[in-house]
Amino acid sequence: MIQARPTPTPFSLSTPGQNLVRLTIIRGISWTGFLGVVIFGIELLQFHLHVGYVIGTILFVATINVMTWWRLGRRYPVTDIEYVSHLLLDTLGLTVLFFFTGGATNPAVTYLMVPITIAAATMRQIHAVIVTVVAILAYLFLLFHFQPLPELSIVYDGMPFDIHIMGMALTFLLCACLVMFFITRMAIALRKRDQVLAKTREAALRSEQVMAVASQAAGTAHELGTPLSTIALLASEMRLDLKDQPELLKDVDLIRQQVDTCKKHLRTLAASAQQEASAVQRVNAREWFKSVINRWLVMRHDVDYTFDSEGGRSPDIDIDTTLDQAILNLLNNAADADPDNIELRLDWAAGEVHFEIRDHGPGIPLDIADELGETFVSTHSKGMGIGLFLTHSTLERFGGSVKLYNHSEGGAITAVTLPISGRS
Length: 424
Hints:
The chain is α+β, with helices and mostly antiparallel strands. The protein is 59% helix and 12% strand. It has helices at 15-43, 51-71, 80-99, 113-122, 125-144, 163-241, 246-273, 285-299, 321-337, 386-397; strands at 153-156, 159-162, 281-284, 305-309, 316-319, 342-349, 352-359, 401-406, 412-419. It is rod-shaped and about 120 Å long.
């Protein structure tokens, strides 16, 4: 069985990693805004601040942000504890900044809601509770302990100019924008994660179904050996009895040929079961598809087909014995729908080989079109749908796909896609 080579996944693709990336961006934006407001207050509004402590706090947080951005380039995962630590560090930095800039009278103090909102949206309940409790304690502390700023409410040019009210409006606008940015991004990330988990569950379910079918097939292959041998023996005896009837001899010979084909497939199945995995080979796409078609014609003498291929040398693809059977299943489905005028087309482009099967049968019922290949759903009344299911699983294992849809002029089209071999 061919297996895709695992690609190292950057830690930032994990949920805590993505959240830390966004938190770093938000921290850079908000603290840059704080620095601008402080400079504006000192230079234009003549605020009397402990400049050293205020600027030192901002530079400390900026240093942490730069180090975090550097850390985000390392290939080791961001843990939940690390992410919580960053939110607590933000809360601490805000507490120190607000302590020297008016405490709870500072209109920007409501920014303490941002870490709480982020924690509630992205963390487990226990971690969100910790961040919330710390932020509440910080706010209560700032109610009673802070360096006052009387300049927050002043009269300018004979008119009252309430800086506190203006600051609250600006802080609300900043908080609303940041919360909206973070929550919407997190919602998108969660939806993508749910989609990945759903696909993983579907793949695991298909694997379990394939293993169940494989186990059943192994037992069935063993049991079919005896009746096939009996049929072969009877066909040989019938040939002796009917040597004077050439028309019936042709039918007997066809029966014997089909029995031999079945026994050959059973021997192949038994041999494959004894191996850890089917041997993957690199073959020329056109030559391989021609060989599969020739095998199909041995089993289906009643078909009328045309095969068209793109000019030039065809690329190479990776195959094993299971892929042969997958394509045979699709060809047999087309022949079952209508053995007359089956159109086969092979071409390649953009690193992929495309094989198309067009039949002129009744088409695909719309009520089962979306389920074909995903579960045991058959396109005709006598089928069990196992062949198409296994075909879908096999092509997916090779990095390919199969799609079935109705043609506008009647009949159905089966489109097979396989990647061109990347081996040298």
